[in-house]
Amino acid sequence: MIAIGSDHGGYALKCELVKHLTEQGVELTDCGCNGETADYPDIAERVCAKVTNGECEKAILICGTGIGISMSANKIKGIRAALCTDEYMAEFTRRHNDANVLCMGGRVVGGGLACGIADVFLSTDFEGGRHAVRVEKMMKLEGK
Ligand code: RB5
């Protein structure tokens, strides 16, 4: 199960992603917004809670630039949110950083690219090994 959410700046792209991922057979929990004005920290909090409580394995967050929502998500304990603008970033943030939240900018990436980024993010495994040591060190920075 994948959680997805956006503010108003990411709403149109979220709709495209929901359609694409549903067609791919991905099970989604859509946490809003529904087109109304929404504050990106509220959406980040709502969506990330689904990951930290174990209800969802990963999540996708979208705002206008992807920046505010990724900054917000990375304040939450246990979240490793990656703002991606291409498929290479999506692949390596999964392989090396074990990112559990994908962030994108609805005013930055087009629908076709965003769908490709999401597909790569959701289908790429973490490599572990030396990267696990680094991710562990990264998580120890929480609360410092
Ligand atoms: C909302 O207009 C916009 O500020 C927001 O979507 C995002 O880009 C913030 O980082």
Major sheet strand order: 2-1-3-5-4
The rounded Rg comes to 14 Å
**Poorly predicted parts:** none
How many β-strand runs? 5
Number of domains: 1
- Would you list the SSEs in sequence order as H and E? EHEHEHEHEHH
What is the CATH topology assignment?
Answer: Ribose 5-phosphate Isomerase B, Chain: A
Largest sheet: 5 strands, parallel
Q: What is the first-to-last residue Cα distance? A: 31 Å
Strand content: 15-25%
- If helices are DSSP runs of H or I spanning 4 or more residues, what is the number of helices? 6
Q: Helical proportion?
A: 40-55%
Annotated CATH architecture: 3-Layer(aba) Sandwich
**Helix-strand category:** alpha/beta
Bound molecules: D-ribose
Specify the CATH class.
Alpha Beta
Write up what this structure looks like.
Helix 1 crosses helix 5 (111-123) and helix 4 (87-95) runs parallel beside helix 5. The longest helix is centred in the first third of the chain and has 13 residues, at 11-23. It is built from six helices and five strands. Helices cover 46% and strands 15% of the residues. The mean pLDDT is 98. The N and C termini lie far apart (31 Å). It has a five-stranded parallel sheet, with helices on both faces. Helix 1 (11-23) links the parallel strand 1 and strand 2 (28-30). D-ribose (RB5) binds next to helix 3.
